Amino acid sequence: MFVWSKLSGNTWVDAWEERFAGDPRFVITRIPGRHTVRVEVYCEKKKEAEEIQSHFGGVVREVKARNWAAMNPDPPVPVKVRDRLLIVGDKERTKLAALGREHPGRQIISIPPDMAFGTGHHETTSTVLRMLVDIAEEREGTPWTMLDLGTGSGVLAIAAERLGAAKAWGCDFDELAIKVALQNLKRNRTKKVTLEVADVLKWKPKEKWDCVAANLFHDVLEEAFPKMARAIKKKGTLLISGILKTQADGCLNAGRKAGFVFEEIVTRGKWVTAQGRLG
Questions:
Q1: 184/182 Cα distance (integer angstroms)
Q2: Which has the minimum average pLDDT: 20-24, 83-87, 191-195?
Q3: Average pLDDT, whole number, for the chain?
Q4: What are the Cα distances from residue 108, in Å, to 188, 189, 200?
Q5: How far is the C-alpha of 209 from the C-alpha of 277, rounded, in Å?
Q6: Which candidate, 237, 178, 227, 222, places its Cα nearest to that of 207?
Q7: Intervals of CATH 3.30.70 along the chain
Q8: pLDDT tens per residue, range 34-46
Q9: 110 φ/ψ sector (left φ>0, alpha ψ -120 to 50, else beta)
Q10: Cβ neighbours of residue 202 under 8 Å, at least 6 residues apart?
């Protein structure tokens, strides 16, 4: 087993926690007397640890054999979303089939925490998933579409298809995230979702969508609001998350300046999620 590690400033703890939420191999250690933390992710394969290193820097080292068992945890607890979805960390077909029998009526979505780009456990992702279920029920029987900006693991786009979306398109600036997300699409036999590597701030909307979801950091959201306004249909719904409570007022005001009205604002822990529309 190998571990990737990196020293980081305390101000980045929230970002690291969101990035690796749901991954039981992720560890943050606060260093006494210093304004830094040690971020670690334990990996079975050196290549996986080196992929993380290629994106975030840091170092990779081998873990002594006596520590292996402690670093081989069970999959995270499944996430129930309303009465429609169950997000699980399992990926074996037999286990997924068994979960389907145990939870009749729920769509089972497999998102292993192998590289953790949004497993559904973090407050930001789980709240958006709940809102997405509500939107799907309102639009049931219509060919609604979904845009997923900062797709991460692809869980929101996959959920949209399972909930009846006619199509979904998602992007992420991180090539590794898209690589993992495409694996998730294949495992979940998703056929109506297209994912691409793209920077939201450089991306240009080519069409309009019924639902636009953006789980991004507040500064990216603030800059991207005008683009999202051009990408959403007149009666479409905007879902935004990734906003800390301390950043919410400024971020939502930036959205209002771009023409959005926020009808529902949900705070879970230190994170804020909002649902809105064009005014």
A1: 5
A2: 20-24
A3: 88
A4: 9, 11, 29
A5: 12
A6: 227
A7: 2-71
A8: 788 888 888 878 8
A9: beta
A10: none
- 120 pLDDT band (50/70/90 cuts)? low
How confident is the model over 59-70, as a mean pLDDT? Answer: 64
Whole-number Å distance between alpha carbons of 110 and 94:
12
What residues does 270 pair with on adjacent strands? none
Burial of 134 (0-12, 13-18, 19+ CB in 10 A): middle
Burial class (CB in 10 A: 0-12, 13-18, 19+), 158: buried
Give the residues across from 215 on adjacent strands.
241
Q: How confident is residue 66, by pLDDT bands cut at 50, 70 and 90?
A: very low
CB proximity list for 24: less than 8 A, separation 6 or greater: 73, 74, 75, 76, 113
Asked whether the beta carbons of 118 and 215 are under 8 A apart, the reply is: yes
Spatial distance between the Cα atoms of 115 and 52, rounded to a whole number of angstroms? 8
Domain with CATH 3.40.50.150 in the chain: 117-278
Measuring CA to CA, which residue among 117, 275, 151 is closest to residue 211?
275
In this prediction the pTM is 0.78
Structural class in CATH, domain 117-278: alpha beta
Closest to 270 (Cα-Cα) out of 222, 201, 221, 218: 218
CATH number for the domain whose boundaries are 2-71: 3.30.70
